[in-house]
From TrEMBL:
Pfam families: THAP4_heme-bd. InterPro entries: Calycin, Nb(III)_bact/plant, Nitrobindin, THAP4-like_heme-bd. A motif (GXWXGXG) lies at residues 20-26. It comes from the Bacteria. This is Ferric nitrobindin-like protein. PANTHER family: PEROXYNITRITE ISOMERASE THAP4, THAP4 PROTEIN. Belongs to the nitrobindin family. Residues 11-164 form the THAP4-like heme-binding domain. Gene3D superfamilies: 2.40.128.20. SUPFAM superfamilies: Lipocalins (SSF50814).
Amino acid sequence: MIEIPSDLHPDLVPLAFLLGRWEGAGVHDFPGSEKCNFGQSLTFTHDGRAFLEYVSHTWVLDDEGKKVRPLESESGYWRIGADRKVDVTSSRDEGVVEIWTGELAEGKPQIDLVTDAVARLPFAPEYSGGKRLYGYVNSDLMWVGEKATPSVPLRAYMSAHLKKVVDPREWIADLKDLPDDGIAFFK
């Protein structure tokens, strides 16, 4: 179920499905980089202004699914116009800043993005652009990222399946209506 916070800026209602903390796992595979499974924690928040703030952390997982070491981190801001155009600014820990532009699909919670501009620090790895697809599917958030470098044409390199994480503190307000013994609730 998608909840729309009462203090969410009206322009952001079409992006409300992104809000919250998401966690899950995915696959990373790109020539010249380590092929691995990874874990991810992704958070979309808002403060009442006309953008969503996001922060993503990924880490390499071993064969048992345990954290080995950090993989990538990025953060940024998402905006949407009246014409369903989505614009994202992001920066990554490896020294890359991107401007993404795209569109929210008609009638479904799916966003296609492509890089409009890329800036790299001198030590950053080669990177010339990318594409991303985000979708809300059966209450889960799924995404796939593609990237290109001067020596590697555009290709998929990361994808993940994330589930929304619910903080138990959000449920406390609902508990005040339960009977003291908790059993009568089920009768």
